[in-house]
From TrEMBL:
SUPFAM superfamilies: L9 N-domain-like, Ribosomal protein L9 C-domain. Binds to the 23S rRNA. Gene3D superfamilies: Ribosomal protein L9, C-terminal domain, Ribosomal protein L9, N-terminal domain. This is Large ribosomal subunit protein bL9. It comes from Rhizobium herbae.
Amino acid sequence: MQVILLERVAKLGQMGETVKVRDGFARNYLLPLGKALRANEANKKRFEAERATLEARNLERKSEAQTVAETLGGKSFIVVRSAGETGQLYGSVAARDIVDVLGAEGFNIGRNQVDLNNPIKTIGLHDVVLHLHAEVEIKIQINVARSADEAERQQKGESLTSADAIYGVDEDALKPEDFFNPEAEFDGDDE
């Protein structure tokens, strides 16, 4: 199906371009969200008549996205979750969790604006990309930890999943003979 784009769509084209897309993509996404019109003579005339308004609205959205990007850019947000000793989360941190954390800080970000291919399943510092506008994208840091204290330690660069952090043992000082001594006598008593 041929459509006229009413705004820039990533990996598809710029505003005003006539592009060929699959019928389902046009019917289920582009047309209902107002991102495109069917390419026919009446809609081409309508687009040309509304072009200035559409460009002004797009410029306004872009400037709003840039102001949000300036305040959000480079910030770190803490997400507290339950995790095992190895750092594996019992659940996961998904896009909706990130939206909730940003909402608690006063940022109105949609779930579709969070670029998270797979949910976060381990504690640590994770970079997440936010698409605020088709032309504005920023990177924030999500600090996933078991507590606020651990989040502070992680932010300073401490590893919370190493043997030192878990057991209080220096990994570099450990030697294989500390774990197994073949010459040690066994008296048959388990205690």
